[in-house]
């Protein structure tokens, strides 16, 4: 079935799947996952699929899943609260140093990033964590610690996570810090990260709890990663509390990183500047209660951004591609949501098999960034065309700013 705005995939015995994917590829496996999710008995109204949709764990990434009376922990995932933060400055392109490498080095020194190899017997500090957290980390952790202690009393295995030492750090994979220029050559500071190790531990724990509950009650599922926690159970209440805390951690993680990013830029650019002319901080991997179509539902945005009427959001492209600051149009059919990025077209393994360092160098020409074998999986060609993705969701958001990165830091 076709509409002017979206296509509808009807699944026997399931809720409709509304897809804003015109002009962008959707894998067969992604369609299968969408069908499986739509068959879950607690889906409310329909599932909304964003143009960056691609295969995930159990449920597709780039999907909005409204539920009544249950939550699927694997749909929220393990990078709980992952999202973006961007700030426009009063600096212009002419204020940037001729050698952008100095700026990249200052950022890499100021913000822990990456991860130490997990080798047998390794007992050193993870290079992606703080050895001695600075004051902003202490101040942020003070706002998080009491509730974390309550969560740990219920789930003791979460105690020995790298929580405090990870607050204000970047991580690995597609997480990044960028210096960008907008259409008027103003400098923007942008970063992408989530709840780090503690969020991963929370997500992983409750995914396994949900699977065990399904086995205990002999619940048949189309995919084991669609295991759910029913509302009214202790496990549901514990998860909602823990995931809410992890989302607070993720937001503060980005705020602390932004403070350190600004400080790093000031060490290289001595000209005084205002760093928050415009600022956005948004999750794109989270769950929360929202009101839609007359009901209070638990809405999971798995790789999607809230796009209520007038609300600002961030849609990044890949390394070497444009990114966008957008304003939501408040489309109710998408549950007031839009895409969270370009979306992968292939797995990380396939990208490393198919492309070379030379390909990476060509694809990121003009960007001061790593160009080595360990970031080939992030090559722009492993992602969908961001222009096609934006065109497919023009009824969901309007573009406010178009950004092009000049410096990119990855873990």
From TrEMBL:
GO terms for molecular function: DNA ligase activity; GTP binding; manganese ion binding; RNA ligase (GTP) activity. Keywords: GTP-binding, Ligase, Manganese, Metal-binding, Nucleotide-binding, RNA repair. Coiled coil: none annotated. The active site is at 340 (gmp-histidine intermediate). Residues 114-134 are annotated as: Disordered. The keyword Manganese applies. It catalyses: a 3'-end 2',3'-cyclophospho-ribonucleotide-RNA + a 5'-end dephospho-ribonucleoside-RNA + GTP + H2O = a ribonucleotidyl-ribonucleotide-RNA + GMP + diphosphate + H(+); a 3'-end 3'-phospho-ribonucleotide-RNA + a 5'-end dephospho-ribonucleoside-RNA + GTP = a ribonucleotidyl-ribonucleotide-RNA + GMP + diphosphate. It holds the Pfam family RtcB. The keyword Protein biosynthesis does not apply. SUPFAM superfamilies: Hypothetical protein PH1602 (SSF103365). GMP binds at residues 174-178, 284-285, 316-319, 323, 340-343, 410. Binds 2 manganese ions per subunit. Mn(2+) 1 binds at residues 79, 175. Belongs to the RtcB family. PANTHER family: RNA-SPLICING LIGASE RTCB. Monomer. This is 3'-phosphate/5'-hydroxy nucleic acid ligase. The gene is rtcB.
């Amino acid at each position: 079935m076709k509409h002017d705005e979206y296509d509808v995939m009807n699944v026997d015995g399931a809720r409709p799947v509304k897809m804003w994917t015109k002009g962008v590829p959707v894998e067969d496996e992604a369609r299968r996952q969408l069908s499986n999710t739509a068959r879950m008995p607690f889906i409310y109204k329909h599932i909304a699929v964003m143009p960056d949709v691609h295969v995930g764990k159990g449920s597709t990434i780039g999907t909005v899943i409204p539920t009544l009376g249950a939550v699927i922990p694997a749909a929220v995932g393990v990078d709980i609260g992952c999202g973006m933060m961007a700030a426009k400055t009063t600096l212009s392109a002419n204020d940037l140093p001729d050698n952008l490498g100095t700026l990249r080095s200052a950022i890499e020194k100021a913000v822990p990033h990456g991860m130490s190899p997990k080798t047998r017997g390794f007992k050193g500090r993870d290079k992606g964590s703080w050895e001695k957290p600075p004051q902003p980390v202490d101040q942020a952790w003070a706002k998080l610690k009491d509730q974390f202690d309550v969560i740990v009393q219920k789930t003791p295995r979460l105690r020995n996570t790298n929580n405090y030492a990870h607050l204000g750090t970047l991580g690995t994979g597609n997480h990044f810090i960028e210096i960008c220029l907008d259409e008027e050559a103003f400098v923007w500071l942008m970063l992408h990260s989530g709840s780090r190790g503690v969020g991963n531990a929370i997500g992983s724990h409750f995914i396994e709890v949900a699977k065990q509950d399904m086995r205990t009650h002999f619940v048949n599922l189309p995919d084991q990663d669609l295991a759910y926690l029913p509302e009214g159970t202790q496990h549901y209440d514990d998860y909602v509390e823990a995931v809410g805390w992890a989302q607070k951690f993720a937001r503060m993680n980005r705020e602390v990183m932004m403070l350190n990013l600004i400080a790093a830029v000031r060490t290289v650019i001595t000209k005084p500047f205002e760093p928050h002319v415009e600022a956005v901080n948004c999750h794109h991997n989270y769950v929360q209660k929202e009101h839609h179509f007359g009901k209070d539902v638990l809405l999971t945005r798995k790789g999607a951004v809230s796009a209520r009427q007038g609300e600002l959001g961030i849609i990044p492209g890949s390394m070497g591609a444009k990114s966008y600051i957008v304003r939501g149009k408040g489309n109710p059919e998408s549950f007031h949501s839009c895409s969270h990025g370009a979306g992968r077209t292939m797995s990380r393994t396939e990208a490393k098999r198919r492309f070379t360092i030379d390909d990476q160098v060509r694809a990121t020409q003009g960007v001061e960034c790593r160009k080595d074998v360990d970031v080939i999986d992030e090559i722009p060609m492993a992602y969908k065309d961001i222009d096609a993705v934006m065109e497919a969701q023009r009824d969901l958001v309007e573009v406010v700013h178009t950004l092009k990165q000049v410096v990119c830091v990855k873990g």
